[in-house]
Every structure is written in structure tokens, then in C-alpha cells.
Protein 1
Amino acid sequence: MTLALVLTLLSPVIGGFVYGFERILRARMQGRVGPPLLQPFYDFFKLLEKRSLIVHSFHAFMGIMYLLGTWFSLYVLLSGGDILVAIFFHLLSLAFLVVGGFSVRSPYSIIGSMRELLHMVAYEPVFVLAAAGLYLVTGTFQVSEILHSDQLPILYVPLVFLSLLLTLPSVLKKSPFDLSEAHQEIIGGPEIEYSGKYYEAVYTAKWIEYVYAFFFVFLFAGGKWWLGALLVLFSFFLVNLIDNVTARFNFRQMVAFHWYILIPLTVINLMLLALWRN
Amino acid sequence: MEKVAGALVLVPWLLALLVFISPWHRVRQFFTFLSLPILTFLTYKVSVGNLPLLVETPNWLNGLVTLYDFLLLFYFLYQGLKFKDFLVSVLSLFQLFLLVWVLKVLPHKEGAELLVDRLTVFMYWIVATVGTLIAIYATKYMEQEDLSRENRFVSVLLWFLGVMNFAVSVNNLEWFFALFETTTLASYVLIRFRWDEISVKNALRALWMNQIGGVAILLAILFAVKYYGVYRFTEILSMKGHLASMVPLSFLAISALVKGAQLPFHRWLLGAMVAPTPVSAILHSATMVKIAPYLILRLSPVIKGTLLAKLLIITTGFVFVSAGLLALTQSNFKKILAYSTISLLGLMMLTGSMGSPTAVLASLLLILFHAVVKALLFMEAGVMEKLFKAKYIEDIKRLVERAPVTVLFISIGFMSMTIVPYGIFVAKWLTIEEASNFLSHGAYISSIIFVAIGGVILSLLYFKVIGVMTRKREEFVRFRLERLPFVYLFSTVPLVLFTVFGSLFIARLSAELINPVVAQVVDSPAPVKAAGLTLVTGVSALYGWQIIGAFLLLLIVPIFAYFVHFSGTDRVFPYTCGERVDLTLGTYNFFCVSSIEPFVETASVALFILTLVLGGGLV
């Protein structure tokens, strides 16, 4: 419990380091040197000094709510409670970002928020099915019990793990599923109207989402935490590799990929496992 | 006890009569207000009594019901001939023929014709609170629309409540047919209330579609008498485990699907929106469509685990997803609500047909919260229509600047259907966890997929609407809450409060109030316990601090949104890349989704036939 609280409180720092490391990794993949590891934190402090420009207070406030919501949903996940509840809490935090994005009359922000919802339409069923897969293997929905389970979920539900890996880009807004940010077309989507310390909040929330998303990967190793760490490293590398080598899909392709490829993959695995168990 | 249950049927009728004959608006309003305390008190009296209660009725009542059946069907036939509607006339003739046949074969056995158990009382509660609030709301609504026809309208609504109370307490299938068709009559009268061309057309459509449900019930009686020699719910339920044939049950299930406006029979419920808004409110929440999940829950112990139940799961799950998808393409606010009702009715019946105690608990939670929330949303739709002249998504743009309270209520209503920690989320959560136990069968796998996908589609839909409403140009220059008539506040605020507090105390609510109902529906209670605010299920728990945390997060939003302004920060216009853009923005219309409509309808027809033919074992 204390560990969960400490981890949650530190999650912006962890997420910041992950983000800094990611920028280096991506740069190396592209043959560049890249920024220093602490660059996200330098950005963080620089943003604090900048003058904030806001459209209206409600919008700026929703940026802060997004940070609080994400932070709370991460605690729900780490505190060892029900994994499905944690998944649905993520939707709650997303709601703040989306409603905030919708609340200004900016075309980019509105399109971005709509795409943010479409991201959710794509990845959330996969997450729910992954939770069902973990339940089938470990016999519990409680995160704390999954983390102490003797079973090795990845051995029983490899296809579920694969589809979770392939859906990570859409949770983290990475290419090919970076529609909601899409810097070249909608200039960051729902983030566009935030600035100064309000952008700070949204920016930090994104770091927390890193911890949130990769923790799901970690769960697939059950009680073997070293394997979990390896899986996280591997998936981190893979997500960045995919990010570097692919171009953006449109939203229909994204939803179709998730619904028609990843969900069937998951379902086949679950059915085979259930049959084998009987 | 019998007398109290009888009063629950007769008192609304009496009040309806009083409302109908009283010449002054205030008096009518008074009688309508009276229905809330009286019905609540009577329901309370029944619920503390000894249940289940089997009531034997005198023989002449049977004759009266039969006579009433004939009168009703002749009236339908008359309507069909009067408006030259082929389907209505033919279906009434067919029903008359079947009814004569039923009367010919019906064995006369002694037995209770009325059955009042916890499920019935559960429905009484919904009628007594949500239903009467809608009637109260209707008095004000009609005052703004057409005072001269108010008495007619409100008395039909009150009468409808009595009919609904009667319909959920019958045991005899022939009586159930009579009440089923009476609700059809009530909806027919209410939908054509405005008497313009489109109202009559939609009313006739509702009439013939619901008559198909009536035909199905009559066929169910015929087959039940043929195969089992019985025609009462209790007798069918007691044959659990050694049913000779599923045919009667599949016909009953079909009638539930028709009444519940499941695809492809969804058009009658969509057509109901041409009537005054209280009609939609009452059809969608407390009465009419709720007969569908009620009937499935009644039958769930006998159909549990059969092929029929599995096909019902697939059919209703398919409706849950596809009705949500079709709702995305709509731009009329009431149509969006109607599609989402169809969708959630699918989920209620899905959980009902799963039939395990936890699933039944989820189904009851869905029925309760959906009734409350849909009544609230339709009432707010009426408020928007009457006070702010907004019917379409285009009209509700930036509504928050004009009507902050209405927007807040609608947002609470929409959010309560998708996100943590509201009651409908809890039901969805219980469903997914329950379905995870049976993943070796395709039907349960598909149920989990349908619930997951349908849930996110509904979230997409609701946030799309909330996003349009909450859009603002700039800071509130001079913020003031809109002035709503007292009656509107009186009928909506209790529903909002129930949505919030019912969700906050969801653990107590489900473990102590709803679990006894579950115990009587499926003979064993669901394995849920309440520990403070924490809801503990068999495999997991929803902690009290999670519920409170989510509520705190949600509740500070409106406070800050309306009252807190950041000072010392510069205000700018939205960034538009330096271009001069007209900032009247709409939202996605999901035109691409409408192309799947023919496919969806074909698939749903196929599933209907499969449910009937394979589920009933007709082959």
C-alpha cells in the first residue's frame, strides 16, 4: 500500500525519465544524438516561467483535472484493486481532457478530442479482454493478487499479450496511432489551446500515462517481477521502433485494426485457453 | 396485502378519472401530485409484507378479462380499418383467431391468477417514483403546450401507470396477454396524441409492431398448453429442468424482444418521439419497454444455460452494439436518447438471460438506474425544447452559456450511463466479471465483447453530445442560473439526487435492497456484500474510496466551471494558424457509420429468426 502510494506520487518523475530516455532512444534510432536525459524536466521548469494564455478558465481548469484524474486512476491501478475498475477510471480521466478539448471553439481542439474518443473506442475493448485473459490465468481481478500469482500469464495468453503490445501505441499516442495529436495536421489536438502552467499539467499527465500503460505489460509476468521488467523494456523498445518506422493511419483504419484484428486474436486465445482448461 | 396490491392498480385509475373530469388546472395538478405519496406509500406497504404473494381471484374476473381481450382486439381492428392500415387489421384479425383457439383449448385449473413477488414490487417502486414524477412533470409541460387537452393527456399517463402495475403482477399468461396489449393501446393513444399526420402514422406503426408481440404471446400460450398443459408463470417456473419443449419460452422471449424495441423492431420506439416529450419519458423509463427485461427476468431461471438463452445473449448483445452505432449518426436529441434506450435494453436482457445471480443483479441495477436516468434525460429534453427551443445537436451548441443547470443535469445523466462510479457502470462491471467465468462458450465470449465494445460506443456518443453542449465562447460575462419552473425542478432534482446518491451507496443498495429481489428471481442471492461503501463481489471489490474519489473529481468540475475564474492570466482567442476561420463548429456526424444500417437490419432479422427457430427448437 505504501509502495503504491510512493510509486504514484513519484510517477511524474518516473514518467519524465521514461520520456527523456525515449527521446534519446528515438534519436539514436534516427541516427541523431538526441537531447539529454533530463530534457523533459528542463522543459518542465521552463514552462513554469512562461506567461499563460488561456481561452477561458473552464478549459484551463480541465487541463488540471486531467492531471488529477490520471494520477488518481494510476493510484487505483497500483493500489492493487480491481483491474477492470482501473481501466474504467482511465476513461474518467480521459473524459476531463475530452470535455476540456470540446469546450473551446478551436477546430483543432475539437477534432483532436473527437479522435481522442475514437482512440478509446479502439483500445478499451482490448484492455477489457486482456483483463479477462489475466483473470482466466490467475483466477483473480485483483492487481495485488495477480502480482503474486504463481502462474505466468504470458505463457497462457501470448496472443492477448501481443494484442496489448500492438494497442500500446494508441494509448500512448504514438505513430501509427497518433491521430489525436497528429502534429502535422491538427497541431496537438486537445493540447493546442493550453499554455504555460496549464500545458504543464497536461504534459505531466502524459508522463503518468506512460507508467499506467506499461504497468499493464508488467502484469503479464505474474509473480516474476524480473520478467515483468524485461517485458516492459522490450515493449518500450518495440513501441518506439514502431513509432519510428510507420506512418499515421486514419481513424477508420485504426478502429478496424483494433476491432477486426486485435480483438479476434484475443478472443481466439481466450477460447483456446478456456477449452484447454476444461 | 391483496387489497394493497389491488389499490396499486386501482388508485392510479381513480386519480386518472379525477384528473380527467376536473375542470381546473390547479386541481388536476393537485391530484397528479397526490399520486406520488400515495403510490410510494402503497408500494412500501407491499414491500414490507410477506412475499411472494399468490392471489386467487373470483371466476367472474376471468370472464371479464376475456371479454376485455375481445373488446380490445375489436378496437384495434376498428382502428386498422378506420386508418386503412393493412398490417394493423390483419394482425388484429389473426389475434382474434388465436384468442378463440386459446379459449377453446385452455384447461380450467384452480390456481392463483396474480403473483406479487419481489420482482413485481421492484417494478412497483419504479412506477411509483419515476412514473409519477413524469406525470407531475407532464402537467406543467401540457400547460405550456395546450392546456385544453391537459386533462386527457395526464389522465392517460396515470392510467398507464396502473396498467403497468397490473401487468407486472399477473401470473396467468392470458391475463398477461391482455395487459401486454393494454400497454400497446396506451402507447398507441399517447403517440397519436397530437393527431397530425406523422403522429398517426407512427402510432399505427407502434400498434402493429407491438401486436406481433401479442401474437407471440398467444402462440406461447397455445404451445404451453399443448406441451405442458399449463398456462401460468409459476407453473412454468416449477417445471425447471424437465421442460418438454422450449417453443413457448422462445415465443415469450420474442414478445419481450418486440416490446423492448430490439432491432429490427426498433422503429416504433423511435416513432414515439413525435408525441409530447413526457410520452417518450414514460415509455422509455418506467413503463412499456421495461416489460421486456421484466419478462426475461421472470423466465430466466428456466431458460438459463439453454440454447435459447445463448441466442438471446447474442441477439441482445448485437443490439447493444449496433443501436449504439446507429445512434452516432443521429442529430436529433430525442432520437439519440431513443437509440441509447434500445441499446441499454439490449444489455438488460443480455444480463437477464445469463441468469446467474450476479448477472440478474446487474440486470436489476440497469433497470433501476436506466429508468431514473432516462426519465431525467427526457424531461430535460422537454425543458430544452420548451424553454430554449433546442431539438437538434445544432441547436444545443453552447447551451451552457444560456442554461447551466440544464446542461449540468444532462451531463450527469449522460455520464451516469458510462463512467465510474455510477450505477450503470457497476452493472457493466459485474457483467464483464460474471461473463469471464464462462469463457469456454461462444455466447459468453461474445457477451464480453459486446459489453466492452457497446460500452465504449455509448461513451463516444454521450461525450460527443456533452462536448457540443459545454462549448463556450469565453468566460461567463455575467453568470446566472436559468430560471426553471418549480414543477420542472420538482420532478428532475429527485432523479439527479437519486442518480448520485444511489451510486454513492451502491454497495448498500445492491446488497440489501436489490439482492432480496435477486434471491427471489433465481432462488439464490448474488455473492455481493457491502462493507461500508465498498461493494465486495465474489472475485473482487469496488472500494469505497474509489467511489468517493471519483465523485470528488466529478463534483469539483461544475463548481469550478461555473464559479471560479483564473485571474491574472491573459485571455486569447483559439489558435487558427493565422487564418480567418468562422468559429461556428459542429461535431462529427459519423456519416460513414450509416452505411452499415442495411447490414445491421439484415443481421438482426437473421438473429431474430435464429432465436425463434433454434432457440425454441422449432426445427
Protein 2
Amino acid sequence: MVEVSNKMTVMPGLRKIYGRPQSLKDVRTHYCPGCGHGIIHRLLCEVIDELDIQGRTIGVSPVGCSVFAFDYINIDFADSLHGRAPAVATGIKRSQPDKIVFTYQGDGDLAAIGLAEIVHAAVRSEKITTIFVNNANYGMTGGQMAPTTLLGQHTTSTPTGREAGAAGFPIPMTEMLAILPGVVYAARGSVSDPPHIGKTKAMIKRACKAQVDGAGFAIVEILSNCPVGWGMTAPESMEHLSEVELVYPLGVLVDRSAPPRQPSPPEGS
Amino acid sequence: MAAIMAGCRKYFAYPITPQNEIPEYMAAHMPEVGGVFLQAESELAAINMVYGAAAAGERAMTSTSGPGYSLMLEGISGIARAELPVVLVLVMRGGPGIGSLENAQLDYFSATKGGGHGGYRNIVLAASSVQELFDLTQLAFELADYYRVLVMLLVDGILGQIMEPIEIMPFSNGKTRSLPAKTWALTGTGRQRPQNIISTMLMREDETYQWHQRMAVKYQKIQAEEVRYDSYCLEDARIAVVAYGMTSRVAETAIDECREQGLPVGLIRPISLFPFPYQFISQYTHRIEGFLVTEVSMGQMVEDVRLAVNGRSEVSFVGRGGGLLSHQEITRGIRELWLKLATK
């Protein structure tokens, strides 16, 4: 029998095809049942393992549900005051330029109170990676409206639904950031179903690889569900993500991290 | 310059008058030593960049003035909780709000009593000359690393603006401290050690209580070992002027003037405002009948002097909300206190 992890053994002749990433701790999370953070943590840890950067990666967690990310991801970590993660990550990266530094932020944290910090980290093209989890509400404080909340969405601070005249429109953060020349990679994924989850992982990997290669600021926005904040069951909230995807289109918005392509051979040659 | 001599290699700040000479100096000279100068998008960002750099084990600093300091209090509170070594220069200006650019000593309460939320302390040092500011800046980095606290240099607006000749030399306070290794710093685990976590939270059961218990011990140690003060003509004094920063130099002129007229007056100058020299002041109450506190404020440090004196001597106050105190105002205050004591 071959030991492949501290808790799993495999019979001879069998091949391990799925297991817990080494960077992901073997503990229960505090997240609500059905919450998308668990999936996203796992994707991030798979990428950290695949790029073999666990020993030199430093995370910055936000204020919000994912403030305890360091309880689940086994790397050096700082938590940050509300919205300031990109500034903290800037201080870390400027001190430890050979390390891989990422922020993990929610939509209230990044798109409201931390707007200046994320925009200017992007303007400076800080060599950091931002994982931006957009679940269209403030989950931890009790499901209040966030700048990302959809029009008509009921939250505890928009009890009759978000109305543009009183509370404005949903903020397309990643599109706004993608126009900045300092942003080398910007993409939006979703955790609504396995195909989307697979694509989202590829985006995270690309965004982290950009930093490994010494390129500038990269961000992946991930549409995620919040069953409790949305007043839905977990399956309902997963299905509802397709509505959110209509407001926030998925895909790679900009990729300036790619090496310049070879010029195509002239026609007729 | 003193900061760079002390090994500071990370400086983050946002422009604000009257301290722009510091970022401009850093912008020119940090690159020469391979350091980082970064102009942040706000004081909120600047202090959080300092938090990040200090968390990564670097000697990091920022500088600001009143309105920027108010914004930084969020990060200062977090730095206190996370016990990060940081140096902050606060050049005071006039009034609340945008206020004015006048000389002032109006941020004493905010600097020495915590300022931000949550019940923490910073070491606060106040210089009275450019030379002393140079020396204390170097000391500040040592104290910050030794105690894992934020050390603030509280600077009068006028001291932030004047030029004086100084002797440039590495600071020595006679103590050779071995500074603890920063084993807690975020440097990547290298898969060689358990993860390091720098946190501003106290969410675990009993953690708030335990943190404050631990800080009480640390702050008591600072109060026992890091009190700094200076005095002038105190040997035979029956009245003591108490002043910090540039105001103490004006007071010295007033004291010389009163001495010429035969008044036995001296000066006590707190250098560390936290820890405040309570004991040094209180030991004189048997001989000094009156203390005249003078500040460019409507009376802030005077409350700490009253605590030190504890009713055993007279305490009076001369101050103004902004601008410059004249030595004539202080002399008048000394004479009035002398008359009051004589008619008692």
C-alpha cells in the first residue's frame, strides 16, 4: 500500500485521481452550508499546489466571511482592515518581491469601502493577484445591499428590492479595472456548475502565473452564491447564479500577460 | 535621513502640509539605498501599506499631519492589535477639521491616549530641536522593534518647518539592546515552518481579555523603562514650568528672564509623552510649590501634570489654541503663579 496523504492509502495498481490539495487544511470551515467560498478556496489551493508556490505565497484576507481564510489555506497570511487588502498586499510585495502575494476579497470589501485601494493597486500595476468573490451582498454582516447587488434584489437594507433611483446600479468592477493599462489580466468566472468551476480555475491559474512570471496586477472576479444572504436553499442559490451571470458576463476581459505572439507567416509563403 | 540611517527601507505616505519635506526627501533618497518610496492614494492606504511592510519584517514608516492622522487611526489601531513595529511622524497643525497650517500642539490627547478604537497605547516622543528629532527618530526604530509597538514622533508644526545645524551621527542611548528576531514575519513558510499569521482580530474565545492582559504587562514595562525627560534650572526651583517640544524653548527664555528678576523658576520637559514622566514630576511636589503648564493648546498635557501632582502643589496653565506662545505670555504666567503662591 502506498501512502499518498496522511489520511488516505491506495491499493497497489490503483491510481489516485482526486484528493485534498496540500495547501488546503483538513479542517471544517465556518462557512454556511452551500456557500461558494469552499469551492473557491479549493480552486486557489489546487493552483498553489500546481504552480508549486505554497512555500513562497503570502495571502491577505479581507473583512467579511473570508477573513478566516488563513484557517483553511496553509500559507503565511495577514488579515486586513475593511477594504485595505490591496494596500497591505502592496506593503508586503514591496518588501518581499520574490514572494507570490494575493488578496482574497469580497464585493463589499473591494467594491465599496476598498474602491480606492483596489483601483490604485491596479493603476500602479502592483505585482499581486486579487481573487474577488462577488456574491452580490454583505454576507457576514447579515445580507445587506452591496454595490454589486442586482436591481430588484431583496436584501436586509433593500427590503423592497434594490431600486436604481435610491441606491444606484450594480457596479461592474472588473470591466472598470480592465481598462487600466496596469491590469495585465482581468477575468470573471462563476461557481454555478462544474464546467464554470473548471473555467474559473483556469482563470485563477492564469492570474497567479502572471505574478510568478513577474507581470503586473491580475484580478479574477468570481460570481458566487450566498444561500443565507439570498434567502434561498443551496441548490436554489446555485441555480440563481445564472441570473447573476446575465448582469455580470463571464469571460476573460483582458489578457496582457500573454507573451507576444510570433508574427504569422506572410500569406502565400 | 535619520530614518534611513536607522535602517528604514520602506516609506509610504500621502502629501499633506506641513510635513511634505519628509516624503520629498524620501522620494529622492530611498532609491539610493535600494529602499522603497511610494506615494499612496490616501493616508488610509499609506498606513495599511506600512502595516503590510512591517508584517513582512521590514523597518517601515510614514508621516502625516492632523487630517491625515485622523484617517490613519484605523490602521494605527490595527497595527497596535497586530503588535507591529512601525514609526510614524505626526507634524501637528492647527484646529480640528481641515483646520489651519499654524503651529500647534493640539494632538496630544489623540496621540497619547490612544486616538483610535480599542484601548491601545503607542510610545510617543516629542523633540524640542532638529538635532533631538534626528536622534529620537533613530531611537524610535529601536523601541518599535524591541517592544513591537508603534512609536510616534509628535512634532510641533514649527519644528517640522525650521532648519537647524545638526551633528549627523548614529544614535546611542547607552543601552545595547539585543533586538528580538522577527520570527513572526510573513516571509513565506518555505514549507519549513508552520504558517505565520498577522491578524488584527480578537475573535477567539477569551482572546480580547487575554490580549489586553498581555498588553497591560507590555505597557507597564514601557512605563517602567522608557520614561524620558529633561530639565533646566530645576535645582533650586520653587516653580516649575512644564512644557514639551518647541514650547519648552520659549519657556527657557521666559525662565532666564524671571531668573534675572530673582524668581526661583525651572523647567521640566517631558520627552516621552507616553510613557509620561509622572514620577519625575511628583517627586518634586515637596519642594516645588507651583507648576505652570504651557502648551499651544487650550490645555491637554496639563491633565497629566495634575495627575502627577495629585493636589500636592498648585497647577496653573498658559496656552493658546494655535500659533506661537511668546515668552512674555509665559513670564506673565510665572509671575501670576508666584503672586498666587505668595498670598496663599
